[in-house]
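Second attempt. The first submission of Anti-sigma factor antagonist had a stray character pasted in from the spreadsheet, which I only caught after the job came back as garbage. Lesson logged: always re-copy from the clean sequence file. Corrected sequence (122 aa) follows.
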Amino acid sequence: MGVLVRITIADTHTDGVTVVKLAGELGADTAAHLATAIEEILDRPTHRIVIDLTLLGFCDSIGLSTFVDAHQRCAANGGFLALAAPSPFMHKLLKVVGLTRQVPAYATVASACAGTEEGRLR
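This time the job returned cleanly.
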């Protein structure tokens, strides 16, 4: 039995950005759910997505690949995908694997929605 991830897509947009909240564990058994949710968002007129990692406790390489793929698809459509509010564990993971050099990550959802250098994690 795989551990589930809960995906919540904000009904309202913050500064034209769709916020996707993840909770639980993102891995081989659940990454396809996130990829599907991103596909549905990209079918809309907006291509600006922030993924709120506040409640994400674990992410494996398949989950990390999903972030990279989604970021590339958003950028190809003139938008962006950013990660926001990772726990200390998740921030360390993102940094160690070098993902923060590929996908922008921010300390808060608000700073990720703004998309500026302020609050950006390295």
